[in-house]
Design brief:
six-stranded antiparallel beta sheet, alpha+beta, Rossmann fold, elongated, 8 helices, 60s Ribosomal Protein L30, Chain: A
């Protein structure tokens, strides 16, 4: 078998790709080569063909309904060319969604196969899979196909083509590739492997509500904090609903800071409603990076975080959390507060507790994104940052200057 593979390889890169696809799957993923099937009737009368099935690559988290690929996703899409370099792909199927089309695009440009779009409707994944499997099995005799799908369609499609039902693909998994070989009258043979950079169990930034609602006067509570109780790795920031304080969390510890009779009161239980919330569960942080020069303002801090994150290998096209341990030369911060009884509020900061501090050691907690202004970052800003003070109170950072020696932590 190995001699055959070597003979097929056009160059060393192709050889590596073939071995990864045909051998490593069997060696490193027990049970990945399957000759039996729990679905013997599926495609049982199909003419010989080979089908590769992948999930779309990492999507860009830009809040849109039809996002494209992130930088990591674009790299994975190009890696698909190497993974399939030993095969001539005759036909490619994608859905109508951009992330599947973008995943297939580099290979399509490289090999020039026939291309079909097979739309999938929300809530109708099973119908999509059934009709696609029917077309694949009976319209592509003696061809090699690539199908780019979604986390909820790929396992179903492998089963529909005659393979054993696959485990559910998690939201963080993009590196699986399945090869399904069909021979008329024989059980399907399924090889499962991985391609591109391996996915690591890490973090995923999520959010509900939007900052723009507050700025447009809708300050109602939308996100129930009780559902986040007991999550030891959570990091989160947001405002309490009805302008009644600020929400900050790090390593599962919560700081719900409110203004009561002109004084700050901070509670540690995640209760009540927030106007919006951005959060992530981060089980592991990278080694701190020391910033060896002063940081003059909020904007320079954002640019510095982006630069250090890129050097650390993070995809800065995708939102990520961060934390800083620093000495602030200057800090302006606030905690939202509602208007007094009978008084009318025109702007969300009208009654906020505001404070200017200097020469103070602080912990900063925040989220970075270039694409979420009005969602969880302010207009013309890349980072939403909260501060945790030595006295245990926390709130929103408006302006900051840092001394040299600040330590930045980024997620793995």
């Amino acid at each position: 078998m190995i001699a055959t593979l070597i003979h097929q390889a056009k160059n060393m890169k192709a050889l590596v790709s073939i071995i990864v696809l045909h051998l490593i799957a069997a060696l490193l993923i027990p049970g990945s080569v399957r000759a039996e099937t729990t679905n013997p009737d599926a495609c049982s009368d199909a003419a010989p063909l080979t089908v590769y099935v992948v999930r779309h690559a990492e999507r860009k988290e830009d809040g849109s309904d039809d996002p494209g690929l992130s930088r990591a996703g674009r790299a994975r899409a190009h890696a698909l060319i190497d993974a399939l370099s030993s095969d001539e792909i005759d036909v490619v199927y994608t859905t109508q969604l951009r992330r599947t089309r973008d995943t297939a695009a580099p290979l399509i440009a490289h090999q020039r196969p026939e291309v079909h779009s097979w739309p999938v409707e929300s809530g109708k994944a099973s119908e999509h899979v059934a009709s696609l499997a029917e077309a694949v099995c009976h319209e592509h005799a003696d061809q090699t196909l690539l199908i780019v799908g979604h986390s909820n369609t790929v396992p179903q499609l492998v089963a529909a083509l005659g393979g054993q039902p696959e485990a559910k693909i998690s939201e963080q998994e993009y590196d699986h590739i399945y090869q399904v070989r069909l021979m008329q009258g024989e059980p399907a043979r399924v090889l499962r492997a991985r391609y591109g950079e391996p996915n690591r169990p890490g973090f995923k930034v999520a959010w509900e509500g939007a900052l723009r609602h507050f700025h447009h006067g809708d300050v109602s509570g939308r996100v129930d904090l009780n559902r986040f109780a007991g999550r030891p790795d959570i990091i989160a920031v947001g405002p309490v609903g009805e302008l009644d304080g600020e929400v900050t969390a790090i390593d599962g510890q919560w700081f719900i800071t409110r203004v009561r009779d002109g004084k700050l009161v901070t509670e540690s239980e995640p209760e009540g409603l927030t106007g919006f919330l951005v959060w992530a569960d981060v089980p592991d942080w990278r080694k701190p990076v020391e910033i060896d020069s002063p940081v003059a303002n909020h904007r320079k801090l954002e640019v510095l975080i982006a630069d250090l994150a890129e050097k650390a290998g993070l995809d800065t096209d995708t939102p990520f959390p961060f934390r800083l341990r620093a000495v602030a030369d200057s800090l302006d911060w606030h905690v939202l507060a509602p208007p007094a009884d009978g008084e009318q509020q025109r702007r969300h900061l009208d009654y906020a507790f505001k404070q200017h501090l200097e020469q103070l050691e602080v912990d900063l907690v925040g989220f970075f994104s270039r694409d979420h202004a009005g969602v969880f970052t302010h207009r013309n800003s890349w980072a939403h940052i909260h501060v945790i003070l030595p006295d245990g109170h926390a709130g929103h950072v408006d302006a900051i200057e840092l001394k040299a020696g600040a330590k930045l932590l980024l997620p793995r």
